[in-house]
Write a structure and sequence with these properties.
By secondary structure, the chain is of the alpha+beta class. Helices cover 34% and strands 32% of the residues. The longest helix is centred in the last third of the chain and has 25 residues. It starts with a helix and ends with a helix.
Length: 161
């Protein structure tokens, strides 16, 4: 056997799925890490990188935080007891964090948006963001600022040459 065959593969690091749309639609005020309650087939599907969180959101309901509209497709090799793809999933936070979130989301215009899902060791984690919706003029201003920045970088590059 070669030495390559004996080595174990390092687990894939980084995000399983990210919500890029959230950064465009919302101004992210504060980020929070939360655990997520999953079934075995959901974990396997996540490890395969199969999930969609474009319409996902989090709500505080009776002292618990729930993640809604997160789409994790059934794991293809699972037995007959496959999970429902868009079921509500409970998020794990400390009581103090939940109380703080209740107070923050009571403020006008703040909502909980999942930004990314990743693995920390063997545990699946969700990064939530307290977010405020952007208006159309805010998005247009952001695009204009980005264009100005690009133009300045191009001019600077040309002068350096």
């Amino acid at each position: 056997m070669s030495s390559k065959a004996k080595k174990k593969r390092a687990p894939a690091s980084g995000d399983v799925v990210t919500n890029r749309r959230a950064r465009h639609k919302f101004e992210l005020v504060e980020k929070i890490e939360a655990g997520i309650v999953l079934t075995g087939s959901e974990v396997k599907a996540l490890r395969g990188g199969k999930a969609q969180m474009t319409d996902a959101y989090a709500v505080v309901d009776r002292g618990e935080v729930w993640l809604r509209n997160l789409h994790i497709p059934p794991y293809e090799f699972a037995t007959a007891d496959a999970h429902e793809a868009t079921r509500p999933r409970k998020l794990l936070l400390h009581r103090g964090e939940i109380e703080r979130l209740i107070g923050k989301t009571a403020q006008k215009g703040l909502t909980l948006v999942p930004v990314r899902i990743y693995f920390k060791g063997s545990r699946a984690k969700v990064e939530l963001a307290l977010a405020r919706g952007k208006e159309g003029r805010d998005r247009r201003r952001e695009i204009a600022d980005r264009e100005v920045r690009r133009e300045l970088e191009r001019e600077f590059k040309d002068r350096v040459r």
